[in-house]
Structure formats: structure tokens, C-alpha cells
Write a structure and sequence with these properties.
Order of helices and strands: EHEHEEEHHEH
Structural class: alpha+beta
Radius of gyration: 14 Å
Number of domains: 1
CATH class: Alpha Beta
Number of helices: 5
Helix content: 25-40%
CATH architecture: Roll
Largest sheet: 6 strands, mixed
CATH topology: ph1033 like fold
Shape: globular
Length: 139
DNA sequence: GCCAACGTTGGC
DNA sequence: GCCAACGTTGGC
């Protein structure tokens, strides 16, 4: 299983909307590196849901339930999307400031390449971030 | 609102 | 194929 981090501007699509919708097509990615990451996702992989721009924090966890398929919102070009399902909220959202201040997270793609909207997360970083956020597996 | 980083486009 | 101009993203 692989781990990821996906970004959304809360003004465009927020965690609250993700929770309300349950399963959501993750569309609108128009960057080749991000597309490569989307295409590498497998059903059952997990991703952090990150709020960019106004909140700048990991606010929840989602699971990939449908692997890459053509993005219906793309009017040109071979862009793809995946479907993600809400797993649960981070009990204590992990802020970007907190991540940047932590030497153990210096190698995180989120930090190294701030503009990439779909980033891989190593298993070690995943476990570490889950601890920081007080993540508990839902029953 | 500003600016830095970075991706894309287009002229040569 | 290089590089300048420009657009977009995202942190501050």
C-alpha cells in the first residue's frame, strides 16, 4: 500500500464537503507530475487531505476507492482523476508550520515541492504524521 | 495583496 | 533546443 497527500483549497473544495459527500471524484489536476502520482494510486491506498491557502494543514484521511480514469472535467488533454472516500478527520490537524518546523519531515514532498498538488508520502512519514495528528483508526 | 517558485508557451 | 515572457500556485 502506498500513501499520498492531496491538496485542496477549502474555498474550492473543503474537508467538510468531502465528509458530506463520502466519495468524491478528485478532478481538476492539470500538472504532469501530479498526474503521474494519480496514475500510480491503487485502490486501498490512503491519502492525507490537506487544506492549502487559507488553513494550511492536514485535516483528514481518505482512501482511494477507484483508480485513475479519464477526468470528465478535462476539455482537452489526457488528464485523469481518482475517486476518494472519507475515512475520518485528523483529531488534531497538522499545520504546515508544524511540519516545516520538524526536522524529521524536511524530506516531505509537500515541503520540498510546495506547488505539487498530489504528492507521495513515505510509510515512515505517514506513521509520523498520524502520530502528530492523534490519528486513531475508525472502528 | 505580494512575491517566489515553477511550469508552460512561443520566438528564434 | 534554448531562453525569455508569461501564467499559476501557494505561502506569507
Amino acid at each position: 500500500m502506498s500513501f499520498w497527500l492531496i491538496k485542496s483549497e477549502p474555498d474550492a473544495f473543503s474537508w467538510d464537503e468531502q465528509v458530506a459527500n463520502g466519495v468524491e471524484p478528485w478532478t481538476g489536476v492539470r500538472n504532469y507530475q501530479a498526474r503521474k502520482n494519480l496514475a500510480a494510486m491503487k485502490a486501498g491506498d490512503r491519502a492525507f487531505f490537506y487544506h492549502s491557502n487559507v488553513q494550511r494543514a492536514i485535516v483528514g484521511v481518505v482512501e482511494i476507492v477507484r483508480e485513475a480514469y479519464p477526468d470528465p472535467t478535462a476539455t482537452e488533454g489526457a488528464w485523469v482523476c481518482v475517486d476518494v472516500r472519507t475515512v475520518g478527520p485528523m483529531p488534531e490537524p497538522v499545520s504546515l508550520a508544524q511540519i516545516k518546523a520538524d526536522p524529521a519531515l524536511a524530506e516531505l514532498a509537500l515541503v520540498r515541492q510546495s506547488r505539487l498538488s498530489v504528492c507521495p508520502v513515505s510509510a515512515e512519514h505517514w506513521a509520523y504524521l498520524c502520530r502528530l495528528g492523534g490519528w486513531v483508526e475508525p472502528a
